[in-house]
Amino acid sequence: MGWKISGAAFRGAPPFLLPILVGIFGAACAARPPGGEYFPGLVEYSGRRIEEVRFVDPEPFTEDTLEDIVETEPSGCKFLGLPLCVPFTRIGRRDVRLDLRVLRRDIVRLELFYRRNGFFGTQVEPVVEPVGDDVEVSFVIARGDSVIVGELDVTGLEGVLDRDEVLDRLPLEVGDLFDLDEFEASGDTVLAMLASRGHAYAKVLRNFEVDLAAHVARARLEAVPGPRVVIDSIVVIGAEHLGRRATLRQLTFSKGDLLRLDELAESQANLYELPIVQLASVSVAPDSLQVSPGDSTTATVLVRIDEGPVHVVEAAVGYGTVECFRAEGQWVSRSFGGGARRLELVGSLSKIGVGASGFGAICGAFEGDTLANRLDYRFAAELTQPGFMSPRNALSVSAFAERQSEPNVYQREAFGSRWAIVREVGLREVLTTSIELERGKTVANAAVFCFAFLVCQPSDVAALAEYRWRNDLGLNWALDRTDVTVDPTRGYILRSGATWSPAWMGSAISFLRWTGEGSRYRTVRPEWVLALHLRLGTFFGTASIRPGSEFLPPEDRFYAGGAGSVRGYGRNELGPGVYVGEDAVFDPATVDFFPIGGTSVVVGNVELRFPAPFARDVLRLALFVDGGILTTGTGLPPGGESLRITPGFGVGARTPIGPVRLDVGFNPYDPTPGPLYLPDPATDNLIRVADRFAPDRGSFWDRFQLHLTVGQPF
């Protein structure tokens, strides 16, 4: 309270007077709530329910950003992450009371936030207004003038680094707003450049001065490089099954190399990629393990590994509306023969129960299918050798045999093998080269071949129904420069892949296919993300969907439409196709559309993602425009068809497994014309009755397409 009671002042007073006075002073102190010394004028509002929280003059930041900084928040409803209250109960209701101590901490946080972002001298004042028995809290922000970097100097780099090169790489530059986070990052940048050149024990001293009158900051970074450090030995602890030799193969350095801290981190990441490694650390060894503990020019590196179980067995059973009952099992050796080789054996069976008596009600997807009683299966074995000729390489060899079905369409059987080398070119940059050999056949009735594959001649049908080789060479490259893998807010992703199936490899199918894909993400304002996506694909005129020497099977064609593509269309429904009626008597209501794919595709997406006005921690909204072209022609952009553009909106929720999205796309176009087939009642074969048919547009609501996805569309 600020009072001082001296015993001398009460000498000669009645003995009962001192306890009474102490009690009075104690009661007076107790009457003031915690934090009342900071805001004596707001004491009367302490403990009242907060109805609303405002930020006055928050520029250049949004209220959304400032809400995440402060603890003071309005009362409201929140149940299971949603702004809901259970009626007639207290479930979900949150009554937040005004706490003057919390209010004081919030003001300090806000002022520090503005100052760290270059607005020194910012002051925040709280204003509390009564609303009945509740209160409204406002943070009135008097933003200070922006402070500009007037001088930025880096010293101590003589003979070690080029000063001009260092200044070019610093995130903070002269003339910028003096952001303390960028100033700290600039010091870290200098430190990382020194460490990458072997100065493992370097230090960078950071100093700055701010002239509030001139609104100018003078910043200095003083480097203390120290000597270059050489690795004199490598100690490996653990790695019982992995072994020392296999461990050293994953390291990007060896004895006698300069000690570079970035290589220690990269080597640790390489070890973590081995399935048998549960925990790994690569660091400078403690003094007790140093070969020369008193020598600052040499260092011993310690590699510590904790291994997980060598063998893993998994089994599962499930049910699907198409595949009916299914079962699968997996056996994995994570150190097959030692050296972290990974051997995986996988087997699965599906369509269990299809065609059996008593299962028709729950396994009806294949009803009427002449191939329904044949189980689908997949058996595969894959052996992966990490550190193949380099710690950045992994060799993978696999073999498989499978049978897969599409209800009432076709059944495909195939077996083959694949050899691939995966190389980490850089940070989150991967290059994969592969050779795949496959021998397979497609089984279906002649009518299905005619309308789904556009293969109607008996000789062509017979050729597709025989085993044929499909052998190809593949080259794929991927680069990820995003900040978050699951839901990026900044950066970009690039992918490119080519598949060549030449006749000299014994392939019955010959083509050259290329695909390219790119995504760009940019935060346009706090929590508002602009996402762009472009996908291209072409066969360069080396393939056709028409029967002949260049005939391309459906599984190798391009498709478009659906979630992650042009969302105004259903799955694979953008582009050419055929219409098939269920009865010999034409009825537009029973006509189905079957896409036939294409040989050239362009798909583009523009999307703006932003928080919902309520439950912003959980719900997010999106506005998007998609466009695409899919044709059977050649070249980019493909000719023969016009661009289809469909707008839409989406609602997403953040969940433990990632974002879950419900997108609604609007299609303003008429249905795509195509040939019409009707069944012949005498032979049950399909007869082409029209070369160009298109169903009615339907009602306004028929133009909307719904798509539910886990994860962002791109």
Helix content: 10-25%
| Rg, Cα atoms, Å | 35 Å
Total count of helical runs of at least 4 residues: 9
Mean pLDDT: 85
| Structure classification | mainly beta
SSE blueprint and pairings:
Layout: H1 17-31, E1 50-56, H2 63-67, E2 76-77, E3 93-94, H3 100-116, E4 123-131, E5 134-142, E6 148-155, H4 163-169, H5 180-195, E7 203-211, E8 216-224, E9 230-237, H6 244-249, H7 261-272, E10 277-284, E11 298-307, E12 311-320, E13 324-333, E14 342-352, E15 376-386, E16 393-406, E17 410-426, E18 429-443, H8 446-452, H9 458-464, E19 468-480, E20 491-501, E21 511-525, E22 528-538, E23 577-581, E24 591-595, E25 600-611, E26 619-631, E27 644-655, E28 658-666, E29 674-679, E30 686-693, E31 704-710
Parallel strand pairs: 1-5, 6-8, 9-11, 23-29
Antiparallel strand pairs: 2-3, 4-5, 7-8, 10-11, 12-13, 13-14, 14-15, 15-16, 16-17, 17-18, 18-19, 19-20, 20-21, 21-22, 22-25, 23-24, 25-26, 26-27, 27-28, 28-31, 29-30
Descriptive notes:
- With 714 residues, the protein is mostly beta strands.
- It is 13% helix and 41% strand.
- The chain is built from nine helices and 31 strands.
- Strands 12-13-14-15-16-17-18-19-20-21-22-25-26-27-28-31 form a 16-stranded antiparallel β-sheet, with no helix packed on it.
- A hairpin with a 2-residue loop joins strand 27 (644-655) and strand 28.
- The longest helix is centred in the N-terminal third of the chain and has 17 residues, at 100-116.
- It is globular.
Can you summarize this structure?
With 714 residues, the protein is mainly beta.
